[in-house]
From TrEMBL, chain B:
Transmembrane domains' residue ranges: none
Source species of the chain: Candidatus Coprenecus avistercoris
InterPro entries, per the entry: NADP_DH_HndA-like, NuoE-like, NuoE_dom, NuoE_N, Thioredoxin-like_sf
EC assignment: 1.6.5.11
Entry binding sites for [2Fe-2S] cluster: C84, C89, C125, C129
PANTHER family reported in the protein's UniProt record: NADH-QUINONE OXIDOREDUCTASE, E SUBUNIT (PTHR43342), POTENTIAL NAD-REDUCING HYDROGENASE SUBUNIT (PTHR43342:SF2)
Name of the gene this protein is made from: nuoE
Name this polypeptide is given: NADH-quinone oxidoreductase subunit NuoE
């Protein structure tokens, strides 16, 4: 690629042709402030509406200021990022944005993590020139099981719209109205629950302000923990341990499994279990289902639907219920690990300890916001009592720990409780895109061939590319595997299948970029996708360090089948661990 | 806004309009024009049906409908009054004319009289600047208006 | 019925009427009757000649003698000398300001060269629904000629003509075509922007309604030049007649093989589709327009990439407005040198203006670039309505600014208007007189911009709203001098930072009125006074005790009970209670109510 | 309608159309026709041009007058709408402004039929591209 030379702030720099001023400045250590701009490298996500005008710079010979995020460098360009004109413009524009923004920072859920707040601090805004009775744009507030919308705080960065449309292809959100009242909203500014929102929460993950936040369940959990009549147990999803440390200032990618368990115990949970246990269980059911369908298919059974699609991701389940109602019998009927855990906890485990399910409170800690919605689905309740009572995000767990006077960094490493705390490496990798299918392959291979795998790492299934495929040799049988993360890629893959472009036997789909490690309940990445990559590395590190790395080798899983379920796909397993899907097509 | 249910005939009509434009999402604005021409306005259910036919999210349809001032989700009155607020009309007293209509009908811009007789809107230049200030009642243009004429003009409409 | 041998045309325009033209007509008729010639000579009252500074005007036909500054007492001499004896009255003849010579035949008067119709050449002359009439006036000959040469030659011709875009910014048209032609891509588009949104400008509508074929022909020429086989006209849905006539013209052109496949046997294919706007001013901006044509919200995007590289459906697209296209065929018919000989150094050709507001001859005019505002307003526009005093002319619509007396002799072209803090825009020219409050005018434009802002970028979405709020505050007498400073700073920042042309120019009405009418702002802020008496909140009503007859009509009409007084005694207005509705003023039959 | 296949064909057609219009406009034979063009753009129509045009057509048909009535576009005289242009054979066209039905009848009575000008003539105040050398 050609290189070009330009001057930024009196220093010459050489960049690749096509580089924006913003990127070029970064390369030479000049950090131009920006608000709407967001780029997730490696994930193909870019939001560049050029709308906030905070990143403007002075380009010599140009009449007006240039948005550095979307102005491409040209040879010989002379750029100034810090002149009186630029400073005045930036501050004035930011004041304008603040003039139409609520000033309730102290009680805002985004307090301390808000990019707008940071920007105001960084630019040293001390007062906002205001007109008496200046208009502010206000909108209906909306709360769904997962997400809260308070669009009075919207700055029209359009990141949520980009995520919902360009990345996820859901299309629940769109810019609506125009001018001063323009905002991002669902059709007719209706409630999200009435829209085709999948609750993937990627809008929340990227929102720079408090406009889009998760529903906060921490209060309910404190109440349950303080209630002596309740037995409160917790399960933690694999991706949480790879990210929780970030909330306490640790480097992204630091594994904090032991500290997390210790913290949960100090919070007062009666048992600290692991969703990974249920992930192993999921593999047993889903892997068996795959083998069952594959076997019948190979025998020529025309009624068999292939490929089998994973069903761990609740946003993905919502997505196909809304968009592919004709394919409801294609995904695996296996419940997600969260729900399998709840079902087992409130049956097998409750019986074991002799507690009525109504007195057993199951809390899940998830990297995900759709899980809040998932645990409220009617089919996951028995007589109105949910299998999982509350789901909280990684961020909410961090705030619980902080509010409970726990010094996280000085905690010792502790282990999960038995029996629902034991897991294999296969379960851990559920947290990253490709992990579920890799875990399934490890088990299915051995169950199908009866042979021991000589290599456990299937690197061909890993990575951050949006759509990946690989063929795995099952001792002479070629199993074609597809993987997609983000719902937009899922749609491409499914449409490709419909069009006959692919011939897959099994497909893994995760709604969030990078899989659950990039989930909407994780600590905010603030547009830095290296964070997601670091979490992914941590996940595979944890797997590699485990003694047991295949789900069917988990002794507690084996025991669960022996004591309670019989065998995979048994009637009891079907009753407790499988579900069905609904046509939600509008 | 009241929710309305579309009957089969109405749904077929929408499908027909969309098909006329090859169900192409790029033709959304043409589809909306034609549909509004048929129904008089674009209520929620109509937008949902258009989204279905064109295979686009209904949020997108709504986003477009709320962007363009020509599209409305409110049914209009039997007679629709449009006051030109172009500059030529403004400097020749359109504001006074508008105030008078508001006072006379006791509705605001964008409103409909309770009896459904008149709806009031502003529009940009109709290009009859020589007649400024100008208003339209349905298709008829009234030019060189003075506020005191308003009462008499409105009284002509049933 | 008599068959008149001679007619005396006497201007009955407002300006001349003020100078006793009615008396002149009477006197002329009396003199003709006295001479016994009323069966041979008629006196006719005409519309405005537009030459009001030299009025009243009397024109004699058939010899086209043009008398200026005629007074009623001149009637006798005109009849006795000219009508009876055939000797022209030299002292009343128009004197050429350059040569100081008297000019007797109006056809040689410079005045008649003030307007030159290029874009409007056929408007009014042909039936727009009959392509034959267009062809009879050299229609499609330019296209035929172009098709015989190479696209490069044609682009060179347009470049040589110096034509610049007539829609606003004034980008050189030939250069635009060249960029689009050089953009790689098999599929390209020609777009005609007919989404005329500037309130008070309607030349594009007029051209499409009156001469649609000129636009069709030009789009085909452009298509040939840049390598496009498809054209799109993006037109306001509020222009049903223009749409209808365009459709008729397109059909007739197709029937003649002037659109469609193998145009004029040349092998070149080109056809046009119509897309409708839906009421969004910002769609005049070309990237917004393109998104609108794609069925999306008409939000502009950052340029580059320019549409010439990535436009409609991501393909190279050339966007020009109606008036720009209407000039194209003439450039090929008369030659680029001819076109470039008209206008100023950097602005060639003519510009159509929609003259409106407080001016006598509201209408569409077309003048060579370089014509002065004075010529436009007084010579063509017939001066200010009601003989009031000229205050300002707003050009360029919401993106433009107000020009004042000091700009009257500035030649109008792109660069001069920009230098004066306004812009050419689409060519709206709204004339204002002493009764117009410039703060209110700025507020009016800001209200428009606030309504029409797409909301995408923060400076335009929020900044213009704040500008409007401050202006509103000032018109209500609540402004401070700090507000004025902030108004200026905010305006500059919006200009500097907004995403698209709409936002970048939206503060122009504020800045230009502050620059040119600073005292008027100060009067509102410091003296709490609106010099034009336009701002309702600043009006002070009073009753002149000498004129008041004590009829009580005002007191009865006052909705606030602010008027006190006994029957048959002078009444008084309590300014504290007064809500400034003006009801008393309307009701008073004795002109006793005054407004300050 | 047949397609025009070349520049030559276009020019032949133009010459034919031009002379047809010329005959219509400038002929001195007894059946000479007067051409009346009503400005029928939006502003004209808004001001009542359609009613004027209809009344002229009615009169012409009723009395079988040697007149062709056509519609034209905008002449730019917005302040004087409705406007009509009358072209008597061999003479320069004359534009009348502020034409209502009564005025139209007066114009027919006096100018169209007898060449007698009536009040309300709008002076031409521009040059055309043909005139500009």
């Amino acid at each position: 690629m050609d290189k070009i030379k330009l001057t930024i702030d009196n220093r010459e720099v050489e960049v690749e042709n096509g580089t924006t001023i913003f990127q070029a400045a970064r390369q030479m250590g000049i950090d131009i402030p920006a608000l709407c701009y967001m780029k997730l490298d490696n994930l193909g996500v870019e939001n560049r509406p050029g709308g906030c005008r905070i990143c403007v710079v002075e380009v010599e010979g140009r009449r007006n200021l240039a948005p550095s995020c979307s102005t491409v460098c040209t040879p010989g360009m002379v750029v100034h990022t810090h002149t009186m004109r630029v400073i005045n413009a930036r501050r004035t524009v930011l004041e304008l944005i603040l003039s139409d923004h609520p000033k309730d920072c102290l009680v805002c859920p985004k307090n301390g993590r808000c990019e707008l707040q940071d920007l105001a601090a960084r630019l040293g805004i001390r007062e906002i020139h205001s007109v008496e009775n200046a208009a502010v744009s206000t909108y209906k507030k909306d709360t769904s099981p997962s997400l809260k919308r308070d669009m009075d705080k919207c700055v029209m960065c359009r990141r949520c719209e980009t995520m919902c449309n360009d990345v996820q292809s859901v299309g629940a959100l769109s810019a609506v109205n125009r001018g001063f009242m323009a905002v991002v909203a669902p059709a007719f500014e209706q409630r999200l629950v009435d829209s085709n929102c999948t609750f993937c929460g990627q809008c929340v993950a990227v929102c720079p302000t408090g406009a889009l936040t998760e529903v906060d369940n921490t209060g309910k959990i404190i109440q349950a923990l303080m209630d002596p009549t309740k037995k409160v147990i917790v399960q933690t999803a694999p991706a949480v341990r790879a990210a929780l440390g970030e909330e306490f200032g640790m480097e992204p990618g630091t594994l904090v499994t032991g500290k997390m368990v210790a913290a949960l115990r100090r919070l007062g949970f009666d048992e600290v279990f692991d969703t990974d246990f249920a992930a192993d269980l999921t593999i047993m059911e889903e892997g068996s289902e795959l083998l069952d369908r594959l076997g019948r298919y190979l025998q020529g059974d025309k009624s068999v639907k292939l490929p089998i699609l994973t069903s761990c991701c609740p946003a993905w389940v919502n997505f196909f219920e809304h968009n592919y109602p004709d394919m409801l019998d294609v995904p695996s009927s296996a419940k997600s690990p969260q729900q399998m855990f709840g079902a087992i906890a409130k049956s097998y485990f409750a019986e074991k300890i002799g507690v009525d399910r109504k007195d057993l409170v199951v809390v899940s800690v998830m990297p995900c916001l759709a899980k809040k919605y998932e645990c409220q689905r009617d089919e996951f309740k028995v007589d109105g009592n949910p299998d999982v009572d509350y789901s909280i995000s990684t961020r909410e767990l961090a705030s619980l720990i902080k509010s409970a006077n726990i010094d996280f960094l000085s905690l010792p490493d502790e282990d999960f409780d038995a029996p629902l705390g034991e897991s294999t490496g296969a379960a851990v990798i559920f947290g990253a895109t490709g992990g579920v299918i890799e875990a399934a392959v490890r088990t299915a291979y051995e169950l199908y061939t009866g042979k021991k795998l000589d290599r456990i790492d299937f690197n061909e299934l890993r990575g951050l590319e949006g759509i990946r495929h690989a063929t795995i040799d099952f001792n002479g049988l070629s199993v074609n595997i597809g993987i997609a993360h983000t719902l937009g890629n899922a749609r491409k893959l499914l449409d490709g299948i419909r069009a006959g472009m692919y011939n897959f036997h099994a497909i893994e789909i995760m709604a969030c970029p990078g899989g659950c490690i990039g989930g909407a309940g994780q600590p905010f990445h603030h547009g830095d996708s290296s964070v997601i990559k670091a979490r992914m590395d941590a996940i595979y590190r944890e797997d590699a360090g485990k003694a047991l790395r295949k789900s069917h080798e988990n002794p507690y899983i084996i025991k669960l089948y022996e004591e309670f379920l019989g065998k995979p796909l048994s009637e009891k397993a079907h009753h407790l661990l499988h579900t069905h899907y609904f046509d939600k097509h509008d | 806004m009241d929710k309305i249910e579309l009957n089969k005939c109405q749904k077929d009509k929408i499908a027909e309009i969309c098909a006329e434009f090859h169900n192409s999402p790029g033709e959304l604005i043409n589809v909306l024009h034609k549909t509004q021409g048929h129904f008089g306005y674009l209520p929620e259910e109509v937008q949902r049906e258009i989204a279905r036919c064109l295979h686009i999210p209904v949020a997108k349809v709504y986003g477009v409908v709320t962007f363009y001032s020509f599209f409305t989700m409110q049914p209009k009155g039997r007679h629709s009054i449009s006051v030109c607020m172009g500059t030529a009309c403004y400097v020749r007293g359109a504001e006074g004319v508008l105030e008078e209509i508001k006072k006379e009908l006791k509705i605001d811009v964008g409103g409909v009289t309770p009896d459904g007789k008149f709806s009031l809107e502003c529009l940009r230049c109709v290009g009859a600047c020589g007649l400024a200030p100008v208003m339209l009642v349905d298709e008829k243009v009234y030019g060189r208006l003075e506020p005191k004429q308003i009462k008499g003009i409105l009284a002509q409409y049933e | 019925m008599a068959n008149y041998k001679m007619s005396l045309l006497c201007c009955g325009g407002t300006g001349c009427r003020a100078s006793e033209s009615v008396r002149i007509v009477e006197r002329l008729r009396e003199e003709i009757a006295a001479a016994g010639m009323d069966n041979d000579v008629q006196v006719v009252v005409t519309g405005c000649f537009g030459f009001c500074e030299q009025g009243p005007i009397v024109k004699v036909i058939p010899d086209n003698t043009f008398y200026t500054n005629v007074k009623p007492e001149d009637a006798e001499e005109i009849v006795k000398e000219h009508v009876v004896k055939g000797r022209k009255v030299t002292r009343l003849l128009y004197e050429d300001p350059d040569t100081q010579k008297h000019i007797s035949d109006s056809k040689h008067m410079g005045f008649y060269q003030k307007q030159l119709r290029i874009a409007l050449r056929n408007c009014g002359f042909i039936n727009p629904e009959n392509i034959d009439e267009y062809i009879a006036r050299d229609g499609y000959e330019a296209l035929a000629k172009v098709l015989q040469g190479t696209p490069q030659e044609a682009i060179e011709t347009v470049k040589k003509s110096g034509l610049r875009g007539r829609g606003g910014g004034g980008f050189p048209t030939g250069l635009k075509w060249e960029i689009a032609s050089k953009s790689p891509g098999k599929e390209k588009y020609v777009v005609c922007n007919a989404d005329e949104g500037d309130p008070g400008a309607f030349m594009d509508r007029s051209i499409l309604e009156s001469d649609p074929n000129s636009v069709i022909e030009a789009m085909a020429i452009c298509g040939y030049c840049i390598g496009a086989s498809k054209g799109l006209v993006y037109i306001r849905a509020e222009y049903p007649l223009a749409v209808k006539r365009l459709q008729i013209a397109m059909k007739q052109a197709r029937d003649y093989g002037l659109l469609g496949d193998d145009i004029l046997g040349s092998g070149f294919n080109f056809d046009i589709e119509i897309r409708y706007g839906a009421g969004a001013f910002v769609c005049g901006e070309e990237t917004a327009l393109i998104h609108s044509m794609e069925g999306k919200r008409g939000e502009p995007t950052v340029k580059p990439p320019f549409p010439a590289v990535s436009g409609y459906l991501g393909k190279p697209t050339n966007v020009n407005n109606v008036e720009t296209f209407a000039n194209i065929p003439v450039i090929f018919l008369k030659g680029p040198e001819w076109f470039a000989s008209i206008g100023t150094e950097k602005s060639k050709g003519t510009k159509v203006f929609a003259l409106a507001g407080k001016i006598n001859n509201v209408g569409l005019i077309e003048v060579p670039m370089g014509t002065t505002l004075r010529e436009v307003i007084y010579d063509i526009g017939g001066g200010i309505k009601g003989g009031k005093e000229f205050k300002a002319v707003q050009t360029g619509g919401p993106s433009g600014g107000c020009l004042t007396k000091k700009h009257l002799d500035t030649p109008i072209d792109y660069d001069n208007l920009t230098a004066a803090g306004s812009m050419m825009g689409s060519g709206g020219m709204i004339v204002m007189d002493e009764d117009d409050c410039m703060v209110s005018v700025a507020k009016f434009y800001l209200q428009f911009t606030v309504d029409e802002s797409c909301g995408k970028c923060a400076p335009c979405r929020i900044g213009n709203k704040r500008l409007e709020e401050i202006l509103d505050k000032i018109t209500k007498g609540k402004g401070t001098m700090e507000d004025l400073d902030y108004l200026k700073n905010l305006s500059k920042v919006i200009k500097d930072t907004a995403l698209c042309g709409l936002g970048q120019t939206s503060p122009n009405p504020v800045l230009s009125t502050i620059d040119n009418f600073y005292d008027e702002y100060v009067a509102h802020i410091v003296d709490k006074r609106c010099p034009a008496h336009k701002c309702r909140a600043l009006r002070v009503y009073a009753i002149d005790p000498d004129r008041c007859k004590g009829c009580t009509a005002c007191a009865r009409a006052c909705p606030a009970g602010a008027i006190k007084g006994e029957v048959k005694q002078a009444h008084v207005i309590d300014t504290e209670k007064c809500i400034r509705c003006g009801a008393c003023l309307e009701k008073c039959k004795f002109n006793a109510v005054t407004v300050q | 309608m047949s397609k025009i296949k070349s520049l030559d064909e276009l020019r032949q057609m133009k010459a034919r159309l031009e002379s047809e219009m010329d005959i219509r406009e400038k002929s001195n034979n007894p059946e000479k026709l007067v051409q009346i063009r009503v400005a029928m753009a939006t502003c004209g129509i808004a001001a009542g041009a359609r009613a004027v045009m209809n009344s002229i057509i009615d009169r012409v048909e009723r009395e079988k007058l040697p007149v062709i009535v056509t519609q034209g576009g905008c002449m730019g005289y917005c302040y004087a709408e409705p406007t009509i242009e009358v072209r008597r054979p061999g003479e320069d066209p004359v534009v009348f402004g502020h034409v209502d039905k009564d005025k139209a009848m007066e114009i027919i009575d006096k100018y169209v039929l007898h060449g007698e000008l009536v009040d309300g003539v709008l002076p031409v105040n521009y040059q055309t591209i043909q005139e500009k050398i």
